[in-house]
Structures are given as C-alpha cells and as structure tokens.
Amino acid sequence: MTGPNPDIKHPIAMHPRVGFLKGLVSAPNIEIGDFTYYDDPDGPDKFAEKCVLHHYPFIGDRLIIGKFCAIAEGARFIMNGANHAMSGFSTYPFNIFGHGWEEGFDPQTWSREIRGDTTIGNDVWIGMDAVIMPGVRIGHGAIVAAKSVVTHDVPPYAIVAGNAAKVVKMRFDEFTVRRLLAAAWWDWPVDKIGRNLNAIRGADISRLEAAV
C-alpha cells in the first residue's frame, strides 16, 4: 500500500497541528472519511468539541464528512441544536429554563426547525473560520472560502464565498464536472490512488478517466 495510513492520528512528523480526523473523532453522530484532516495550531484532537457546535445526540442529526477533505483552522459546523422555534412572536427558549416556563410549550414548534443532516462531500476544501449552517449539503470537490457562512447547499466543484455564501465561480465546466463525478477517484483503492496521483492532481480529465 502506498501513502499514509488513514488511521494514524497525526500523519505528518514534527507537525502535530495536522490530524486525520477519522481516528480522532469518536462521536457516534459524526462520520468522517479516510484522509480528511483538520489543521489547527492548538492541535486537531478537540475537533468535535471545538468545531462541531450544538450537536446533541437526542436530536438525531449527523455530521457526515467525506474522504480527502481539508478543513482549516477555525471552521465551524453549526448543528440543529442551535435552532430556536420561530413560529411565534418570540424566539426566546423560555421552556429550557423550567420553573413553570416549560408548561404549555409545544415541542413541534421547535422540531419543525430541524433541517436534517449536514453532509460534506469528498475532496472538499473548507477555509479558515468558515461556518457551515445546519442541514447544508456541500458537493464533491467544492471550495468554501475563508470566513464564509454557508446557509444553502453548494454544488459539486463550486467555489463559494461571503455571508451568506454564494457561488462565485465553478471550478470546471458542467461536462467536466459530470465526468469527475463519474470517475469518483476518492472511492478507488488507496494503492490505485497512489499510482495515479498525477492524473488526480492534474487537469486532464481524459487521463483521469483512462485510469478508472
């Protein structure tokens, strides 16, 4: 097998700020693919506690991050536990403080705000201090610019930036994107990936397809 072991927590010698997250995150409601890493000068070990916020098991939502993703320092994934009921005049969560304020609270007013799992595709680059809101789906090969706030789904191979993040550029034309998604190199056996790195990191789609 060529390449690093995806189960190694700190794969770069003398550089402990980078970690493969699959071996560092044990939360059952977080799923992370091989070789996805987080880079933080304080270390990647507290990724789940530091970067995945308001993620409560009783809600049932999951954070799913694909393979070969690069996540920069300060990225935040806001999960559904951050949502407040918005159907009434006030969004204040009176019920959580008890002492009678919980009486008459209709849980459905809150559960209607749950937006489902947050899903990050394969080969996604998330820039420094980017914020991903609940229920968002980010497509394969997308890039999220630093300090962006992603409130809506991101197409595969799009570059998004801003608050709220918008598509500023597509990395490739539509035909090439379809071919890249069909090739799905991130699902190849790791030894095959190692043999075809020049095709994967190059820009010749025919060469990549020839390796499929």
From TrEMBL:
Keyword field contains Acyltransferase: yes
CDD domains xref list: LbH_XAT
Entry GO MF terms: acyltransferase activity
Taxonomy, superkingdom: Bacteria
Sorted UniProt keywords: Acyltransferase, Repeat, Transferase
Signal peptide (residue range): none
InterPro entries: Hexapep, Hexapep_transf_CS, Trans_hexapeptide_repeat, Trimer_LpxA-like_sf
Gene3D superfamilies: Hexapeptide repeat proteins
EC number annotated for this UniProt entry: 2.3.1.-
Family: Belongs to the transferase hexapeptide repeat family.
Protein's name according to its UniProt entry: CatB-related O-acetyltransferase
Organism annotation: Mesorhizobium australafricanum
Classification of source organism: Bacteria, Pseudomonadati, Pseudomonadota, Alphaproteobacteria, Hyphomicrobiales
